[in-house]
Design a protein that fits this description.
single chain; alpha/beta; Elongation Factor Tu (Ef-tu), domain 3; Rossmann fold; 2 domains; eight-stranded mixed β-sheet; 7 helices; globular; disordered N terminus; binds flavin-adenine dinucleotide; oxidoreductase; FAD; FAD-binding FR-type domain-containing protein
């Protein structure tokens, strides 16, 4: 299988930002006419014959650097696709060893993903996850939205397809977690992805250079019901590997058998982990959150009500 099999020529595709975003409606970039662009392309049943039903290694990867670049698209090959919850898929991509890990730095950084939709590229941000000890692999958790231009195409990619990405973008400021003794992470839906990136990095650091007193980490996840919780097996496994990690699920419409916290995320769910009588403990607190725009507004109000200072807060947006 040669790499060229997955490359195709496209006439100057326009790249558009999501509707409603600050960049909405603007043509952000045009590829040069005749430029070879790797896209999500496949033949036959959509799965390369050598790739069916297993995680594969793309033979050409050793020759072509599969690295993240900020101003150029790289087509990363999908080597595995797993179900990851209701309407969610976990895609595993191959990359040059350590390339994506070192670009992201475990700081919850995201990438732009381009998908061809009706002859032009649509671009949306997604947050890669790198399981601890994975060197030449990274993952994207994708939730499929009805009518979603990019998520529907991305959800349906198959092993052997390539997906174009560029970045990294955003994330925690370098060293922001240094000196923190308590870290509270709040994620709504796929807002768990930057948290996975940060927590896997903590696990990796703990395995290579264990801290004498590791920070206590509380991960509060808001979802609709039990089936909507993304990447449940990976969360369970993380809990056993990182003993200072506490995972709390808050479900808005759980099944009758659910006996955990319910409703919308409120001060009641967060206060036990952020409020402290000791000033020094307050200073050592870091709180971060990620979710849909209305969730960010809601969390901003909650943090203010709980007396959390701006410098202690990071929003992944
Ligand atoms: C920094 C950042 C990181 C992100 N990381 C991830 C990630 O790791 N995994 C992931 O799956 N997504 C992630 N997202 C969201 C992602 O970028 C897209 O917004 C999402 O996949 C929808 O894009 P779309 O093109 O399919 O929908 P669009 O075509 O933009 O929207 C079409 C319709 O889809 C529905 N829709 C879109 N987004 C939402 C939403 N959030 N909630 C409810 N309905 C919605 C609405 O009905 C909307 O009208 C991230 C967003 C940001 C800002």
């Amino acid at each position: 299988v040669h790499e060229s099999r997955y490359a195709f020529k496209t006439p100057a595709p326009a790249i558009r930002a999501p509707p409603g975003s600050k960049r909405s409606g603007h043509v952000m970039q045009k590829a040069k006419p005749g430029l070879s662009v790797e896209g999500s392309m496949r033949g036959g049943d959509g799965v390369a014959p050598w790739a069916k039903g297993r995680s594969v290694t793309v033979p050409s990867a050793a020759r072509t650097p599969l690295v993240l670049l900020s101003h150029e698209w790289t087509g990363f090959p999908v080597v595995r696709r797993q179900e990851a919850g209701k309407n969610m898929a976990l895609l595993t991509f191959q990359c040059t060893p350590n390339a994506v890990r070192s670009s992201l730095g475990g700081r919850g950084r995201h990438v732009d993903v381009a998908m061809p939709v009706l002859g032009q590229d649509e671009v949306r941000p997604y947050t890669p996850i790198i399981p601890a000890s994975a060197r030449d692999r990274f993952q994207l958790l994708v939730k499929r939205y009805d009518g979603g231009l990019v998520s529907q195409g991305l959800f349906n990619v198959q092993v052997g397809d390539r997906v174009r990405m560029r970045g990294p973008i955003g994330g925690l400021p370098s060293g922001w977690l240094n000196g923190a003794s308590r870290i509270v992470m709040v994620g709504a839906g796929t807002g768990v992805t930057p948290m996975f990136q940060v927590v896997y990095n903590m696990l990796e650091e703990q395995q290579t250079k264990p801290a004498a007193t590791p920070a206590q980490v509380t991960l509060i996840l808001a979802n609709r019901d039990e089936e909507s919780i993304p990447m449940k097996p990976q969360l369970e496994s993380l809990k056993t590997q990182l003993i200072q990690l506490n995972v709390i699920h808050v479900l808005s419409t759980p099944s009758a058998s659910w006996d955990g916290p319910t409703g919308r995320i409120s001060a009641e769910h967060i206060a036990p982990f952020v409020v402290s009588d000791a000033d020094e403990h307050l200073r050592e607190l870091r709180v971060m959150w990620c979710g849909p725009p209305e969730f960010h507004i809601h969390m901003g109000h909650l943090a203010k009500d709980l007396g959390i200072e701006q410098g202690q807060v990071h929003e992944f947006a």
